[in-house]
Amino acid sequence: MNKNVLRKLSYGVHAVGTMDGERPTGCIANSVMQITSSPMTVAVSMNHDNYTHSCMEKSGKFSISILSENTAPSVIGTLGFQSGRDKNKFDEVAYEMIDGLPVITDSCGYFLCKIIGKMETTTHTVFLAEIVEGDVFEEKKEMTYAYYHQVVKGSSPKNAPTYIEEKKEEQTAKVTYVCPICGYEYTGEVPFEELPEDWVCPICLQPKSEFRKKE
Ligand code: FE
Asked: Considering the domain 171-215 in this protein, what is its CATH number?
């Protein structure tokens, strides 16, 4: 089988928000799709190992914020490459609480969901949910997964459904330094060695000293 065919599927980049008791938490998901329009339902695939997964199961609800091409890469770094078990991710991103769920304000808009069903796979739960509220913040261009990968130069964590396909692409990219946490590949015009010592990964904020030269 040629697994590269799966790279032809298109996705968006979204922030999932949910509640850990009184504490907002969440992660990044590209596997969000609308299933029906009446009632309005969506499906989201979430890895069993993600802390967000257990919080979604307990609370029965979540938000989806649709990230834009202008959304700060650090939003993806904070929500996508750290665990809500260890830290309050929402302390580091701009958000507002809407009907009891956190929504990323640096985005195109959001919708709020109530979980109405789920299907288990070996690694992921596919949550089926009804949209109960939603709004557009302003007309921004939504971030596609292809844009994130090609323009922002980001990768995704190993829990993402698309992880394997990305690693293949990473191996063929012409880059010199790679972030070991988020996979960001530095390809700027200034040589990496000449970047200031306080330079950090634009996606996950790892220090320059953590970057590894690509062999
Ligand atoms: Fe990084």
From this structure: 2.20.28.10
